[in-house]
């Protein structure tokens, strides 16, 4: 009887071990580090540069990455599902750009409880579960945009802030910084700062059209505009072009794409605040690998930002930010 009980106990222990190993397949337990990299979306040029940087880090450090995120930057449920799926798979670590600073909290807590560390990048997350935060100092970057627009307008005029979407910490911080920066020109009036462009160029274009019309932009009701990300900047540019106001109303935007670079070169965009998305992806993966290997990492890592204008856009460091060589890393 005792032998039978011992045999059952040993069998149960073996089954637990097998399930644990199966869950960790492809993760740290198999001897190969596998890191899930989850962006806010996969269509904007910004995320393609982040992906390229993550690939570079994975090759240098000898780890595997799995790149997966929602197609659109407003698909919160899909992003939560992706985090939960990677947690269930037992990856070695998760590198996440959360779509919402609160809503991803539960999924991140569950991952950490399952002994899967999380590094947050690009946009902050409430709570202290994640091991590090790798991103631009978005308040400082927004402030840079506000000060630049103030100078472009000679310290006078009527300004519109087209926000991105509620719950996005990175853009909310840029918007806050912009308002701080523009206040250094006390004669500038903020005529609108409560409209959201949304996650797509189409929604940003539609909101921009309504906003320009409501403020009588064609009759001098708007002197300058700030947009806090790629899609809002391009949506506003399209609306200004349609209204015949591109190049007449000062436009300062955020991030880069071939179409935004063309707008900058033509003088229809007056300034773009650029992050270094390649470096963000690179450092986010590198920080996770250091953490998994027991090295000390910083709680917050600032990846920097700079203002690009038509005058400095062809300088070598700036040109690389505007038009990174993604094919080298992504093969397309």
Note the main attributes of this structure.
332 residues; alpha/beta; Rossmann fold; six-stranded parallel beta sheet
Query: What percent strand?
Result: 15-25%
The gyration radius over C-alpha positions equals 23 Å
Q: In order across it, which strands form the biggest sheet?
A: 2-1-3-4-5-11
Number of domains: 2
State the CATH topology of the largest domain: Rossmann fold
Label the CATH architecture of the largest domain.
Answer: 3-Layer(aba) Sandwich
Poorly predicted tracts of residues: 1-29
- Note the run of SSEs as H and E: HEHEHEHEEHEHEHEHEHEHEEHH
Helix/strand/pairing category: alpha/beta
Tell me the number of strands.
12
Bulk shape: elongated
Fraction of helical residues: 40-55%
Report the sheet with the most strands, covering strand number, pairing sense and barrel closure.
6 strands, parallel
List the helices and strands and how they pair.
Elements: H1 2-23, E1 34-38, H2 45-61, E2 64-67, H3 76-89, E3 93-96, H4 105-113, E4 118-121, E5 132-135, H5 138-152, E6 157-163, H6 169-182, E7 188-196, H7 201-214, E8 224-226, H8 230-242, E9 250-254, H9 258-266, E10 271-274, H10 277-292, E11 300-302, E12 306-308, H11 316-322, H12 327-330
Parallel strand pairs: 1-2, 1-3, 3-4, 4-5, 5-11, 6-7, 6-8, 8-9, 9-10
Antiparallel strand pairs: 10-12
Helix pairs in contact: 2-10, 3-4, 5-6, 7-8
């Amino acid at each position: 009887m005792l032998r039978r009980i011992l045999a059952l106990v040993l069998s149960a222990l073996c089954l637990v071990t097998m399930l644990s190993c199966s869950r960790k397949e492809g993760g740290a337990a198999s001897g190969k580090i596998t890191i899930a990299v989850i962006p806010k979306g996969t269509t904007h040029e910004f995320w393609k540069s982040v992906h390229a940087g993550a690939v570079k880090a994975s090759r240098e450090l000898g780890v595997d990455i799995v790149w997966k995120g929602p197609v659109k930057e407003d698909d919160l449920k899909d992003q939560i599902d992706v985090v939960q799926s990677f947690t269930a798979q037992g990856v070695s670590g998760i590198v996440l750009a959360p779509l919402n600073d609160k809503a991803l909290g539960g999924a991140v807590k569950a991952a950490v409880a399952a002994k899967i560390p999380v590094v947050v990048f690009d946009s902050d997350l409430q709570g202290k579960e994640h091991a590090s935060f790798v991103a631009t100092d978005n308040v400082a970057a927004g402030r840079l945009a506000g000060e630049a627009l103030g100078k472009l307008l000679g310290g006078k005029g009527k300004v519109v802030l087209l926000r991105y979407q509620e719950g996005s910490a990175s853009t909310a911080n840029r918007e806050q910084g912009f308002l701080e920066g523009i206040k250094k020109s006390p004669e500038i009036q903020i005529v609108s700062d409560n409209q959201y462009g949304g996650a797509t160029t189409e929604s940003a274009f539609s909101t921009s059209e309504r906003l320009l019309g409501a403020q009588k932009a064609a009759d001098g009701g708007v002197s300058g505009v700030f947009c806090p990300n790629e899609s809002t900047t391009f949506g506003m540019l399209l609306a200004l072009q349609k209204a015949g106001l591109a190049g007449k109303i000062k436009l300062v935007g955020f991030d880069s794409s071939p179409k935004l670079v063309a707008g900058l070169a033509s003088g229809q965009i007056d300034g773009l605040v650029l992050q270094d998305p390649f470096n963000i992806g690179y450092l986010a993966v590198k920080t996770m690998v250091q953490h998994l290997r027991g090295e000390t990492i910083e709680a917050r890592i600032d990846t920097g930002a700079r203002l690009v204008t038509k005058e400095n856009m062809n300088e070598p460091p700036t040109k690389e930010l505007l038009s990174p060589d993604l094919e080298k890393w992504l093969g397309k």
